[in-house]
Amino acid sequence: MMFLTVVMIGRAGWWVFVIAQLMAALAMPTSGVSVRYSDAQGVDVIGGSFTDSNALTSISFAALAVTVIAALVHAVIVRRPSVGIVVVAAPVVGGALILWTLDHTTGVDPRVPKIAAFALILLAVATRELVAHFYGSRRTVHQVRKD
């Protein structure tokens, strides 16, 4: 029962991280250009966007920490070093790839084209999800129950 709880917490934490990080990237202002000539009366566009982005980034990092902690607990429960290394490395590598991609996609002079960013983020999500599927599968659950 504890194993399934840890797997579910890890999966939920991962998706909270992914969505919060994508929303934080959307909330961040794209440049420091003044918005005085835009139609933004009564709205603190720059401050509000930065505040929203900061809050979402904090949530995403907390969710990534929960995901990695759940992966560590998963590794301890299964007691197989090879499984433990893969299960812990997947969210770390996937999260790092997402963070790097979003960092190099936004801003005044983006260095990664949007289509490449799309592919890299999908690769990061697929990496984490495939590991979660194969190492959180029934085979692993049955092995934990036997012990």
From the spread of the alpha carbons, the general shape counts as elongated
How far apart the termini lie comes to: 13 Å
Provide the gyration radius in Å. Answer: 19 Å
**Overall mean confidence score, pLDDT:** 80
What letter string, H or E per element, gives the SSE order?
HHHHH
Beta strand % = under 5%
* Portion in helices: over 70%
Number of DSSP E strands: 0
Oligomeric state of shown chains? single chain
Total of helices = 5
Low-confidence stretches: 33-47
List the SSEs and their pairings.
Layout: H1 2-27, H2 45-78, H3 81-103, H4 114-135, H5 138-146
Account of the 3D structure:
With 147 residues, the chain is mostly helical. The protein has helices at residues 2-27, 45-78, 81-103, 114-135, 138-146. α1 (2-27) runs antiparallel to α2 (45-78), α1 runs antiparallel to α4 (114-135) and α3 packs antiparallel against α4. The longest helix is centred in the middle third of the chain and has 34 residues, at 45-78. The two termini are 13 Å apart. Mean pLDDT is 80; it is low at 33-47.
